[in-house]
Amino acid sequence: YPSVIDPTRTLPLSEQATFSCIRYYESRNHIREGWYQLTPYIWQFAARSLGLPPSENQASGSQQSEAAIFYLKRNGRFGVEWLAEAGLCPGRF
User: Fold this and answer.
1) Are 21 and 88 in contact (CB under 8 A)?
2) Which of 4, 14, 36, 86 has its CA 20 to 30 A from that of 71?
3) What is the pLDDT of residues 24-52, one digit of tens each?
4) What is the distance, to the nearest Å, from the Cα of residue 65 to the centroid of all Cα atoms in its chain?
5) Would the pLDDT of 3 be above 90?
6) What is the DSSP string of 28-61?
């Protein structure tokens, strides 16, 4: 689970709840599986933009959350990265 310093903790509670739901359905909160299950090319774009490790599996939980927030802000919604969760999780998809 995210630590108290995880970047998602700075988001509004509604967005924190959505990311919590996404983590559950994508990885059952297993960090080494990749919390948000970003495909390699999507991860690598965020990683290059943010200076993160080249693989989601090499990243800390905070770094994985940083990449997820990058896409939330870039898209203005939870968007295509997590459409599978659109009917399961709250939030604007």
Assistant:
1) yes
2) 4
3) 999 999 998 899 999 999 999 999 999 99
4) 5
5) no
6) TT-GGG-TT---HHHHHHHHHHHT--SSGGGS-H
